[in-house]
Design goal:
26% strand, 10-stranded mixed sheet
Length: 566
């Protein structure tokens, strides 16, 4: 090769590098070669980050001496934030902080207390040290995101860890990795939103009072402007609201109310129905240990039937249920309370196939009924959200509801049904219940009745208590308890997450909730094979690289010898 050719090749290579550099600046692209596209983020997320007005600052407290599972979650969080930083107009800065790093135990406990005060709960993790001794470590699987909105700086916490009962540690950590993009973007949307979407709780039919839905109000108010009021006779009164919630009504709906709700749905409105199928007197049950369950008619059956569902007037008992304290002592003796199964409070299983119910813990119910899909709705997509377990009993009403139910044995003789539906989702085009019917007297509108809806959604739950939180105290001096928290079992169930997901799903027109359906396969090592063939694989890892290096050396030597001998 002549010197001129060498120079021309060199110049061509330099020109190619310069050209590639220019093209890479003009045409930005990234390639994800993984099967599940685990390093890719959705177009919605990219647009959200590009439209931010200021820098996002993230503090992640998942750092320090972590086991392999939490190290994987830490690595996934870092990779996700790096990906966010690529698309964010003003960048994403982050730091990992070890909350256990301190010069003394007093300083460490003070840090823990500060984080707990901000709502960042610690997780005790049991592990083994090098000597095989069991040790407990405190982990804070949380991140805090701060954003300057106007003159204020808004800070919100993100729980990075999913902890579902019945799942192994590896499975829960895998679920946490799957949900990272949704959890982070959900919080970013919350703190960067300038205008709040409106939702409304319907009143006027003895719906659950505000103290008993206070936790839902609080959670939803982080995302929405939450109003509450009666319907009236003007169908346009619900137009400003993206969704409405009907939470456990006790009185009948008038035809005017039904018409307003129907026309709201026909014009694309979304509804979360939480309707009891059976009426129970809790006062009689607490005073006399029994009461009569009767069908609960709030004059909505024909409307729901027209949309495609029927709430059956039955009570579901289930072996998978909450516990209640029962006095087991004899009359005249010192009270002795012991936990007993309350079969009328099933712990409903959440469907893993829908973004509303996927990856949430069982949902606690009380006096729940069953739901059936009815009619042939070709234009409506129907999905099941909550079901009972395989040990269910269906109790028809009217019938006696007694505390003596705790003495029934958990066997297939009584609990002879399974997987009864308690909550459903429907999405599509619905017919009006007022087709071929007169407009109710008193309706104040000049608009014609719409007989077929725009594409819309609704969720129907056959239990108003799913959204009901307990309260501690009486009268005006009460403290609302977290929704889904059972004080007797000292356990948090998935009610709050279910309600929040349901409303987010109903108001979601951009597909954000689909991020909850993301799947990342959990590829675990074969531990029996690792233990049984440990020595073999150790020798393979040691000798194979040396053998490959030796073969390369011999081949290189043979090639050079043959080349220069010629």
């Amino acid at each position: 090769m002549t010197r001129a050719k060498k120079i021309s090749y060199t110049l061509a290579a330099v020109a190619a590098v310069i050209l590639l550099t220019i093209l890479s600046e003009k045409f930005f692209f990234r390639i994800d070669l993984t099967a599940e596209k685990r390093y890719s983020i959705s177009d919605n997320t990219k647009n959200l980050l590009r439209n931010l007005d200021n820098e996002l600052k993230v503090t992640v407290y998942l750092d320090g001496d972590l086991n392999s599972g939490f190290l994987r979650l830490r690595k996934a969080t870092k990779e996700m934030l790096d990906e966010f930083n690529v698309y964010a107009e003003h960048g994403v800065s982050y730091e990992f902080v070890n909350p256990s790093a301190a010069t003394s135990s007093e300083e460490r406990n003070k840090k823990y207390a500060e984080l707990e005060k901000r709502g960042l709960r610690q997780i005790p993790v049991y592990d083994k040290d090098e000597e095989g001794k069991s040790v407990m470590k405190i982990v804070f699987p949380w991140a805090e995101i701060s954003y300057k909105r106007g003159d204020d700086t808004v800070v919100a916490a993100v729980n990075l860890l999913k902890n579902l009962a019945g799942k192994s540690g590896g499975e829960n950590l895998n679920l946490s990795v799957q949900s990272l993009e949704f959890e982070l973007t959900n919080t970013i949307r919350m703190i960067t939103s300038s205008g709040l979407t409106k939702i409304a709780f319907i009143d006027g039919h003895k719906e659950l009072p505000e103290p008993y839905v206070w936790d839902s109000y609080t959670k939803l108010s982080e995302y929405y402007q939450v109003d509450r009021g009666v319907i009236g006779t003007d169908p346009s009164i619900l137009d400003p609201y993206k969704a409405i919630v009907i939470a456990g009504p006790q009185d009948k709906f008038s035809e005017q109310d039904k018409y307003v709700i129907d026309q709201y749905i026909m014009n694309g409105g979304k509804v979360l129905w939480l309707i009891d199928g059976v009426k129970i007197s809790l006062d009689s049950l607490s005073s006399y240990s029994e009461t009569v369950g009767v069908a609960h008619d709030v004059n909505l059956s024909d409307q729901l039937f027209k949309y495609g569902v029927r709430i059956n007037p039955v009570l579901l008992q289930d072996v998978q249920c909450a516990l209640v304290p029962v006095n087991m002592s004899r009359e005249g003796d010192q009270p002795k309370f012991e936990p007993a199964p309350w079969y009328y409070s099933p712990l409903l299983l959440a469907s893993p196939f829908h973004p509303v119910s996927k990856n949430i813990t069982p949902v606690k119910s009380e006096f729940v009924s069953s739901i059936d899909f009815v009619g042939n709705r070709e234009n409506v997509k129907q999905d099941v959200l909550l079901i009972t377990s395989t040990g269910t009993h269906v109790q028809n009403v009217p019938s006696i509801v007694s505390m003596d139910i705790i003495n029934i044995e958990k066997n297939g003789v009584h609990f002879n049904a399974q997987n009864k539906i308690a909550a459903v989702s429907m999405e599509g085009i619905f017919p009006s219940v007022f087709a071929n019917r007169m407009i109710p007297n008193g309706i104040t509108t000049n608009k014609p009745t719409v007989f077929e809806s725009k594409p819309t959604k609704m969720i129907v739950v056959a239990d108003g208590d799913i959204i009901k939180n307990d309260i501690d105290g009486q009268g005006s001096k009460y403290i609302p308890m977290p929704l889904g928290y059972d004080r007797y079992m000292n356990q948090q169930f998935g009610n709050s997450e279910f309600v929040l997901n349901a409303v987010n799903y109903l108001t979601d027109d951009d597909g954000w909730m689909e991020l909850r359906s993301r799947e990342i396969a959990l590829r675990l090592l074969n531990k029996p094979a690792i233990i049984g063939q440990r020595k073999f694989w150790q020798w393979v890892n040691v000798l194979l690289p040396l053998a490959m290096l030796g073969l390369f050396g011999l081949g290189f030597h043979f090639f050079n010898k043959r080349r220069y001998t010629r």
